[in-house]
Design goal:
Layout: E1 4-7, E2 14-15, H1 17-29, H2 38-44, H3 49-57, H4 63-80, E3 85-86, H5 90-99, E4 103-111, H6 112-121, E5 131-134, H7 143-153, E6 162-166, H8 169-178, E7 181-185, H9 192-196, E8 202-203, H10 206-216
Parallel strand pairs: 1-4, 1-6, 4-5, 6-7, 7-8
Antiparallel strand pairs: 2-3
Helix pairs in contact: 1-4, 7-8
Length: 218
């Protein structure tokens, strides 16, 4: 079996950090938190997201505050996301990987029913064995979702030759929990310094991530 890549979406294949930060600042305003710059966001961000809000607020958000934050974020993000595009070089990388006879899939913590039409809009759905978004409540970790995603892929994918490519420490933790490799990309939600604590390779471009995925499973 050849190397299989499980791609993350937001902040990895989908270059949406400006929209994410703007939507986050809209949400912060509902609880009186000052807006963050992109760099400040990347320095502070963590998963699960309620912990991120706790860090900024100085206390655990109440249930009603969390619901208001979540609703405000998603409302504004939905407005801004159509203006975002794929990360530079992503379409060519996806196409070349498929043409080489290798497999790939997409797993996102973005709501599944919202994710599917966005991926379709870019004309890349056919590159993936599966496209799975989040089901259930937002704000949680990826580990359980990745476990289900890998199970659904079945025996056609060898976990020993599977690599998760994402932009968050949570991507690496999910990969480790499922016994697969991970490569983290610096162009998304975390600074390089924060990614390096995960103990997996960190790269600055998706092309480097793909090259490293092949070497890791060689």
């Amino acid at each position: 079996m050849r190397t299989h890549i499980v791609w993350d979406w937001n902040g990895t294949l989908f270059h949406d950090m400006e929209a994410v930060v703007a939507a986050s600042n809209t949400a912060f305003a509902t609880i009186g938190v000052a807006p963050l710059s992109l760099q400040e966001y990347r320095e502070q961000y963590e998963i699960p997201i309620p912990r991120f809000y706790e860090r900024l607020l100085g206390r655990v958000p109440s249930e009603s505050e969390w619901l208001e934050l979540d609703e405000a974020f998603h409302r504004r993000y939905t407005e801004l996301a159509p203006g975002c595009g794929l990360t530079e070089g992503a379409p060519a990388l996806l196409g070349a990987w498929r043409e080489a006879g290798r497999t790939q899939s997409l797993l996102s913590m973005y709501d599944h029913l919202s994710l599917v039409p966005v991926v379709d809009r870019f004309g890349i759905t056919g590159h993936f064995l599966r496209v799975d978004g989040r089901t259930g409540a937002s704000g949680g970790r990826k580990s359980g979702h990745l476990a289900r995603h890998l199970t659904a892929l079945g025996p056609a994918v060898d976990r020993r030759r599977t690599v998760v490519i994402g932009d968050a420490v949570d991507d690496a933790q999910a990969a480790l929990d499922s016994g697969v490799h991970a490569v983290l990309y610096t162009g998304g939600s975390h600074t390089r310094a924060k990614l390096e604590v995960a103990g997996v390779p960190v790269v600055d471009t998706l092309a480097e991530a793909v090259e490293l995925a092949e070497r890791l499973t060689g």
